[in-house]
Design a protein that fits this description.
The complex is a heterodimer of chains A (116) and B (114).
Chain A: E1 3-6, E2 11-14, E3 19-21, E4 23-26, E5 32-38, E6 44-50, E7 56-59, E8 62-65, E9 75-77, E10 86-93, E11 104-106, E12 110-115
Parallel strand pairs in A: 2-12
Antiparallel strand pairs in A: 1-4, 3-9, 5-6, 5-10, 7-8, 8-9, 10-11, 10-12
Chain B: E1 4-7, E2 10-13, E3 19-25, E4 31-38, E5 42-49, E6 56-57, E7 64-68, E8 74-78, E9 87-94, E10 104-105, E11 109-113
Parallel strand pairs in B: 2-11
Antiparallel strand pairs in B: 1-3, 3-8, 4-5, 4-9, 5-6, 7-8, 9-10, 9-11
The chains are: A mainly beta (116), B mainly beta (114).
Chain lengths: 116, 114
């Protein structure tokens, strides 16, 4: 079945540091890949996505590249801010998930804390 | 444009009690979903509705029922709550049931079962 593995947290960085959160996946088909972010006390919101190999998703200074050869979708940001403190979820959806259904499979989440 | 709304925000139940979590979306989306979020587990799909009039089980459906009341509303019912159902519940919606679609999430309901 499908699965997503992302680095364990929590991750604590100083403001303006470089961020990498690793994400690897296992899928039987050709998935779309997503990063969602959850700010404290809120629901999840899409941060970026990529729907085919070698695509790069980007938003708010965050980037991730869909690497089929390494089955990875690592999240990066060059200079984090205090406002980036949140939980980040890597997820995939696969056209072959289930009996012809479409489902998101999530990683367990990585909590990021950015200190001034 | 409120997006996805959920009620209530918080609820405390005793074991064996029943309750219904309400969800509504105003984006004219076809598909709706219910997830639960537990510490260290990520989000797991309970039930989903690909379109009005249809519902299907997700990864963890036991102990839950759902109703797609109309295109806007998708409710989750716990008939006899158990402590193992203590969790944060999120409703989500998407435009259509395609694997490239973005899901939009509500703010969540924090449920405690004593």
């Amino acid at each position: 079945g499908n699965s997503v593995t992302q680095m364990e947290g929590p991750v604590t960085l100083s403001e303006e540091a470089f961020l990498t959160i690793n994400c690897t996946y296992t899928a039987t088909g050709y998935p779309s890949l997503f990063w969602y972010v959850q700010y404290p006390g809120e629901g999840l919101q899409l941060l970026l996505k990529a729907t085919k190999a070698d695509d790069k998703g980007s938003n708010k200074g965050f980037e991730a590249t869909y690497r089929k050869e390494t089955t990875s979708f690592h999240l990066e940001k060059g200079s984090v801010q205090v406002s980036d403190s949140a939980v980040y979820f890597c997820a995939l959806s696969d056209r072959r998930s289930g009996a012809g259904s479409y489902q998101l499979t999530f990683g367990k989440g990585t909590k990021l804390s950015v200190i001034p | 444009n409120a997006g996805v709304t959920q009620t209530p925000k918080f609820q405390v139940l005793k074991t064996g009690q029943s309750m219904t979590l309400q969800c509504a979306q105003d984006m004219n989306h076809n598909s709706m979903y219910w997830y639960r979020q537990d510490p260290g587990m990520g989000l797991r799909l309970i039930y989903y509705s690909a379109s009005e009039g249809t519902t299907d089980k997700g990864e963890v459906p036991n102990g839950y029922n759902v109703s797609r009341l109309n295109k806007r509303e998708f409710s989750l019912r716990l008939e006899s709550a158990a402590p193992s159902q203590t969790s944060v519940y999120f409703c989500a919606s998407s435009e259509a049931r395609r694997f490239t679609d973005t899901q939009y999430f509500g703010p969540g309901t924090r449920l405690t079962v004593l």
